[in-house]
Amino acid sequence: MPPKVETKSKAAKAAAAAGSSKGKKKKWSKGKVRDPLDNAVMFDQGMVDKLHNEVPKWKVVTTSVVSERLKVSGSIAREALKYLESKDLLKLCNGLKGCRVYTRNVKKIAEEEAAKAAAAAANAEKAGTEKAAGKAAGGGVKKEKKGKAAEGDE
After folding, report:
1. Which of 35, 68, 27 minimizes the C-alpha distance to 50?
2. Domains, the chain, with CATH or none
3. What is the pTM of this model?
4. Residue 21 in this model has a pLDDT that exceeds 70
């Protein structure tokens, strides 16, 4: 004879159906929670220095780029870009009201770098004449070697 098959009661079948994986509803994810930005609403001296030194070297400058990189609010970034444009450090590419796109002013940057190079050359020339004057006065005396290496040379 074949083995007996155990039959389940209606209550056992209902409990098994309720406990199965198909009986559970899908839980939807809550989505990504974005941390609120803590952007500055006023410029301090460090930000002004970055504004003058770094921003004119960027290839494409927009309000959102300045806001992200310098951690300032959008309105402050817009005003900063207008300021840099008035100083001829940036050049306006696209002047639509919604998104103003700026680029670096290559001529102005080249002029500033040439001025810095000329100043550095003048300082180097001045320092070179001071060194030459020091050697002529006897400042160019060689120092003696110290330690075991000096003993071995004798």
Report:
1. 68
2. 45-105 (1.10.10.10)
3. 0.52
4. no
